[in-house]
Amino acid sequence: MGQASIIQAPHRSLRAGSLLLSASLLASSIVACGNSGRDDKAGGTGPLPIGAAIALTGNASVIGQDQRIGLELARDHFQGNVQGKGRALDLTIQDGGSDEGTATNAFRSLIGANVVALIGPSLSQQAFAVDPIADRAGIPVIGPSNTATGIPEIGPFVARVSAPVAQVAPLSIAAALRLNPKIRSAAVFYAQDDAYSTSESQIFQQALIARNLKPVAVIRTSVSDTDFQSQITETLRRNPDLIVISGLPSDGGNLVRQLRELGFKGTLVAGNGMNSPNIYSICQRFCDGLLIAQAYSPESNTPINRAFVAAYTKARGGAVPPQFSAQAFTAYQVIAETLSRLQVSLPAGATLAALPRAELRRRLNTALLKGRFQTPLGEIRFTPEGEVIQNQFYVAQVRMNPDGRSGRFQLLPTVPTP
């Protein structure tokens, strides 16, 4: 891979030195609460239940597959036995599907299981539907990949570790213009039935206009579309030098492939929804050259990222971890470390198990939003509203292997910070 292209976000640097808690410390510091159904009384004896609802089926399942790996690696990294007393945390992963109805059922099922916190869903469209349910129940919910504008504002128990599109999306436009200063015109495709894609597309269009590249065409598609020939043919008549895509891996990958098959030779930029190696099998050799901004670099040389990368490559036969896996790992990590810190903060002899579940959730939410965390994404913290504060971002270009079915995200060379 090339040297990372690091862009500093426009907020002040974070204080370094946040302690990374080991799995043994986490396990020994949390005295587990029981799965007590809907009973809010203290005194359980089992592990603290954490619920995750991610897209394991539907058109966003390629995102959910990445997230499941990240969650399972985090569970293993931050888990341990306490002298035979069992696991400190108990992760339950449910299929949140790729639609609002399936995500709603998964959230309600996990809330009924009396979880301490929730991770998910995979899509912003789903988050607007299900996060209010968790918020009304007073259950902290961490969005691992919900980047649309307005997610943290849903309620006081809603936060995310996925940087908003307003911060990330414009970086790939800037990179495209650095690679090809002769770009004079652009077109935009976006999935109109997906909240993330719609939100991100607006950011992309604003970034283009700010650089005097008002789109010559803005094309609405659907996440369920597979045939884009008519839209592409009409767009190519306008001779854009750059085409920007906001979609999910399935529809976006098919769009990339068909654009190249129908003769587009200009620059392609994709949004966060396609930030997964699972696109390789969809757009295949035509993925090559695609530009995507990144909120994660596997090359980050920190202890937690080295541990994450080592665990991922071992589990996945040498593969490099993608952003969605790193963000899911981070979502679990901030919950696990905050629970550990809460236990340490209690008076001698007191336990988290002695707290009613509603009280534990409130304490967890308050402490999490005030915490600092050394994660695979770098050091992060949160605003009081639950927005993630992250300093480093990257831009990568897809480089496909000769087999046309596998590839890598090659980080672009470092450029001066704007």
What does this structure look like?
With 418 residues, the protein is of the alpha/beta class. The chain folds into 2 domains: 11-163 and 298-390, Rossmann fold (3-Layer(aba) Sandwich), CATH 3.40.50; 166-294, Response regulator (Rossmann fold, 3-Layer(aba) Sandwich), CATH 3.40.50. Helices cover 37% and strands 18% of the residues. The protein has 12 helices and 16 strands. The protein has helices spanning 23-29, 61-77, 100-112, 124-136, 165-179, 195-210, 229-236, 249-261, 280-283, 303-315, 323-345, 357-370, and strands at residues 7-8, 48-54, 89-95, 117-119, 141-143, 158-160, 186-191, 217-221, 242-246, 267-270, 291-294, 372-375, 378-382, 388-390, 392-400, 407-411. The strands form 3 sheets. Strands 1, 7, 8, 9, 10, 11, 15 and 16 form an 8-stranded mixed beta sheet that branches. Helix 8 links the parallel strand 9 and strand 10. Helix 2 (61-77) packs parallel to helix 11. The longest helix is centred in the C-terminal third of the chain and has 23 residues, at 323-345. The radius of gyration is 21 Å and the shape is elongated. 52% of the residues are buried. Mean pLDDT is 87; it is low at 1-39 and 81-86.
